Sequence to fold (163 residues):
Amino acid sequence: MRKTTSILFAATVALAGLAVPMTGDAQNAAPSVSASGQPVAFGADGGEYTPTGFSLRGRAEITQAGNRLRADAITATTANNDLSRVEASGNVYFVTPTQSMRGDRAVYTLGNGEVVVTGDVILTQGKNVLTGSRLVYNVRTETARMESGTGGRIQGVFYPQGN
Fold:
Protein backbone atom coordinates (compact mmCIF):
# COMPACT_ATOMS: atom_id res chain seq x y z
CA MET A 1 0.00 0.00 0.00
CA ARG A 2 2.93 2.36 0.62
CA LYS A 3 3.74 2.41 -3.11
CA THR A 4 0.15 3.19 -3.96
CA THR A 5 -0.06 6.05 -1.49
CA SER A 6 3.07 7.56 -2.99
CA ILE A 7 0.83 8.94 -5.72
CA LEU A 8 -0.72 11.19 -3.13
CA PHE A 9 2.65 12.32 -1.92
CA ALA A 10 3.65 13.16 -5.49
CA ALA A 11 0.41 15.07 -5.98
CA THR A 12 0.95 16.97 -2.78
CA VAL A 13 4.54 17.84 -3.65
CA ALA A 14 3.38 19.21 -6.98
CA LEU A 15 0.59 21.20 -5.38
CA ALA A 16 2.84 22.50 -2.62
CA GLY A 17 5.55 23.35 -5.11
CA LEU A 18 3.29 25.66 -7.07
CA ALA A 19 4.84 29.06 -6.68
CA VAL A 20 2.19 31.70 -6.24
CA PRO A 21 3.26 35.18 -7.32
CA MET A 22 3.56 37.33 -4.23
CA THR A 23 3.79 40.75 -5.81
CA GLY A 24 0.91 43.16 -5.96
CA ASP A 25 1.65 43.92 -9.61
CA ALA A 26 -0.45 41.62 -11.78
CA GLN A 27 1.94 42.13 -14.70
CA ASN A 28 4.61 40.33 -12.71
CA ALA A 29 2.27 37.44 -11.89
CA ALA A 30 4.04 34.94 -14.13
CA PRO A 31 4.75 31.42 -12.92
CA SER A 32 8.05 31.06 -11.15
CA VAL A 33 10.32 28.20 -10.22
CA SER A 34 9.20 25.93 -7.39
CA ALA A 35 11.29 24.30 -4.71
CA SER A 36 12.01 21.38 -7.03
CA GLY A 37 13.83 23.73 -9.39
CA GLN A 38 11.52 22.95 -12.30
CA PRO A 39 9.39 25.66 -13.92
CA VAL A 40 5.66 25.61 -13.31
CA ALA A 41 3.43 26.24 -16.33
CA PHE A 42 -0.31 26.81 -16.35
CA GLY A 43 -3.18 27.26 -18.75
CA ALA A 44 -6.94 27.80 -18.57
CA ASP A 45 -9.82 29.43 -20.38
CA GLY A 46 -9.64 32.24 -17.82
CA GLY A 47 -7.79 33.21 -14.68
CA GLU A 48 -7.58 35.76 -11.94
CA TYR A 49 -4.83 36.92 -9.62
CA THR A 50 -5.48 38.77 -6.36
CA PRO A 51 -3.28 39.59 -3.38
CA THR A 52 -4.85 36.58 -1.61
CA GLY A 53 -4.27 33.98 -4.33
CA PHE A 54 -5.16 32.98 -7.85
CA SER A 55 -7.79 31.00 -9.69
CA LEU A 56 -7.86 29.21 -13.01
CA ARG A 57 -11.22 28.39 -14.59
CA GLY A 58 -12.20 26.22 -17.53
CA ARG A 59 -9.83 23.46 -18.61
CA ALA A 60 -7.43 24.50 -15.86
CA GLU A 61 -4.06 22.79 -15.98
CA ILE A 62 -0.81 23.15 -14.07
CA THR A 63 2.29 21.23 -15.13
CA GLN A 64 5.74 20.80 -13.64
CA ALA A 65 8.31 18.45 -15.14
CA GLY A 66 6.38 15.21 -15.84
CA ASN A 67 3.53 16.01 -13.43
CA ARG A 68 0.19 17.43 -14.50
CA LEU A 69 -2.79 18.63 -12.44
CA ARG A 70 -5.97 19.15 -14.45
CA ALA A 71 -9.45 20.19 -13.32
CA ASP A 72 -12.40 22.34 -14.30
CA ALA A 73 -11.14 24.90 -11.76
CA ILE A 74 -8.03 25.32 -9.60
CA THR A 75 -7.86 27.90 -6.81
CA ALA A 76 -4.92 28.72 -4.55
CA THR A 77 -5.21 30.80 -1.40
CA THR A 78 -2.43 32.66 0.38
CA ALA A 79 -2.18 33.93 3.94
CA ASN A 80 0.61 36.31 4.95
CA ASN A 81 2.15 35.85 1.46
CA ASP A 82 2.44 32.08 1.93
CA LEU A 83 0.53 29.45 0.02
CA SER A 84 -2.03 28.05 2.48
CA ARG A 85 -4.57 26.05 0.47
CA VAL A 86 -5.00 24.63 -3.04
CA GLU A 87 -8.36 23.41 -4.31
CA ALA A 88 -9.08 21.59 -7.55
CA SER A 89 -12.69 20.91 -8.48
CA GLY A 90 -14.56 19.18 -11.25
CA ASN A 91 -12.97 16.30 -13.15
CA VAL A 92 -9.75 16.39 -11.12
CA TYR A 93 -6.82 14.43 -12.54
CA PHE A 94 -3.27 14.31 -11.27
CA VAL A 95 -0.86 12.39 -13.49
CA THR A 96 2.83 11.59 -13.07
CA PRO A 97 4.95 9.41 -15.37
CA THR A 98 4.11 6.34 -13.24
CA GLN A 99 0.91 7.12 -11.32
CA SER A 100 -2.48 8.78 -11.60
CA MET A 101 -5.24 10.04 -9.30
CA ARG A 102 -8.79 10.94 -10.21
CA GLY A 103 -11.54 12.49 -8.12
CA ASP A 104 -14.29 15.09 -8.22
CA ARG A 105 -12.53 17.44 -5.81
CA ALA A 106 -9.14 17.73 -4.11
CA VAL A 107 -8.15 20.09 -1.31
CA TYR A 108 -4.62 20.45 0.03
CA THR A 109 -4.28 22.40 3.27
CA LEU A 110 -0.63 23.22 3.87
CA GLY A 111 -1.14 24.09 7.57
CA ASN A 112 -1.95 20.53 8.60
CA GLY A 113 -0.35 18.77 5.61
CA GLU A 114 -3.61 17.10 4.67
CA VAL A 115 -4.85 16.24 1.19
CA VAL A 116 -8.54 15.32 0.92
CA VAL A 117 -9.80 13.85 -2.35
CA THR A 118 -13.54 13.21 -2.69
CA GLY A 119 -16.03 11.81 -5.16
CA ASP A 120 -15.32 8.56 -7.01
CA VAL A 121 -11.63 8.49 -6.07
CA ILE A 122 -9.42 6.25 -8.20
CA LEU A 123 -5.70 5.79 -7.54
CA THR A 124 -3.50 3.80 -9.90
CA GLN A 125 0.15 2.85 -9.98
CA GLY A 126 1.08 0.36 -12.65
CA LYS A 127 -1.66 -2.28 -12.47
CA ASN A 128 -2.46 -1.52 -8.80
CA VAL A 129 -5.80 0.22 -8.29
CA LEU A 130 -7.53 1.59 -5.17
CA THR A 131 -11.03 3.10 -5.24
CA GLY A 132 -13.34 4.77 -2.74
CA SER A 133 -15.35 7.92 -2.21
CA ARG A 134 -13.02 9.88 0.09
CA LEU A 135 -9.29 9.75 0.60
CA VAL A 136 -7.41 11.58 3.34
CA TYR A 137 -3.63 11.66 3.09
CA ASN A 138 -1.24 13.42 5.44
CA VAL A 139 2.03 14.38 3.77
CA ARG A 140 3.83 14.78 7.10
CA THR A 141 2.96 11.42 8.61
CA GLU A 142 2.58 9.64 5.24
CA THR A 143 -0.64 8.06 6.48
CA ALA A 144 -3.64 7.47 4.26
CA ARG A 145 -7.26 6.60 4.92
CA MET A 146 -9.67 5.59 2.16
CA GLU A 147 -13.36 5.79 3.03
CA SER A 148 -16.48 4.50 1.31
CA GLY A 149 -19.65 6.44 0.70
CA THR A 150 -22.96 5.66 2.32
CA GLY A 151 -23.59 1.98 1.74
CA GLY A 152 -20.52 1.67 -0.47
CA ARG A 153 -17.22 -0.10 -0.08
CA ILE A 154 -13.60 0.64 -0.80
CA GLN A 155 -12.00 -1.69 -3.32
CA GLY A 156 -8.50 -2.45 -4.46
CA VAL A 157 -6.42 -4.72 -6.61
CA PHE A 158 -2.74 -5.06 -5.78
CA TYR A 159 -0.19 -7.09 -7.71
CA PRO A 160 2.84 -8.52 -5.87
CA GLN A 161 5.33 -6.94 -8.29
CA GLY A 162 3.33 -3.69 -8.45
CA ASN A 163 3.40 -3.51 -12.25
